[in-house]
Amino acid sequence: MSYICADWSCLLAGMFNEILYEVGLGRRRGVYHKACQIWLQSQKIPFVSRPPTPVALNGIHPEILSPDFLVWETLPVALRATPRSLDVADRYPLLDWMKASTCPMGLLVNMGQDQVEQHRVTYESVSVPFEQDWTYWSDIEGPVRTIGMQIRSAVQMVYDLHGTGYGDRICGRLVECAMRQHGMSIAARPEAKAWFRGILVDRSQLDCFIVNNCFLVVVTARTENIYSCVNRTISYLRSVGLEWGVAVNFGLDKVNIVGLRKANIV
Q: What is the pLDDT of residue 82?
């Protein structure tokens, strides 16, 4: 399969170079997308433009993903028109689609510079452990404990069905969907004020969830450890004035969930 995809990517490289030369530099991504459609049709190469692929959780689709093209039914192509070299983060949307579709190889192409930048991207599903730390919840009890255990069950559901490999946004959507399926009330991206020396300097949304008006949940992904997620959760707890928090990281080699309590944090 890898040899076949290598031959295909070489063939498509000719398409991208021809398009960049004829269409010209500095055009919008959609212009290059349309030109690719014309070229593929002229060569009678089978393709689908932006095929929708749902990310499912118990029959619900919290996210629909699409590459720019699926060529020969097996090779996804993601186009960019960025006037800079691509970095690791530019691969994430394509990797998300490859995980959802179980496709092992794809092409990431940038048409935004003087020369075409093309990368072969591979994805391999791996099994990772699920680690939990409830040290700060030693005295949690009553209805608050019940909600905390429901949040843990929701994260466990996402782990059981999807493991790790998705980015922040999709992991967040999956956890939100799972919490709703567990009957919890969710407020996504709550607004909070930022103060410095008693002066209001900002009022903006936080990238987290407020659950049943008493828990704050932060979800991150593709990081090496849980610490940045924990630190963000602690900071958000202070900003919104809640007592209880949950930090969740769908990391590169493990999934971590940590229960936090503002009163126990210096």
A: 95
Query: In the block, which residue shows the tokens 């020969």?
Result: 72
Which of the listed residues 76, 95, 122 is the one where a domain comes to its end? 122
| Residue 187 pLDDT | 97
Q: What's the rounded mean pLDDT across residues 191-197?
A: 95
What predicted TM-score, i.e. pTM, was given to this entire model?
0.91
Same domain, 104 and 135: no
Length of the chain: 266
Distance CA 2, CA 134 (A): 44
d(CA 257, CA 158): 12
Domain count across the chain: 2
21 and 146 inside one domain: no
Look at residue 231 and give its three-state secondary structure. helix
Say yes or no: 209 and 92 in one domain.
no
pLDDT at 1 over 60: no
User: What are the beta bridge partners of residue 215?
Assistant: 211, 244
Q: Same domain for 170 and 111? A: no
Rounded to an integer, the average pLDDT of 50-61 is 95
CA dist 181 to 1, 59, 185, 203, Å? 39, 11, 10, 31
Q: Can you give the CATH number for the domain in which 14 is found?
A: 3.90.320.10
Domain that holds residue 59: 2-122
Q: Which two tokens stand for residue 26?
A: 């500095």
Kindly list the strands in the beta sheet with 105-110, ordered across the sheet, starting from the edge strand earlier in the chain.
47-49, 69-71, 75-80, 105-110, 117-122
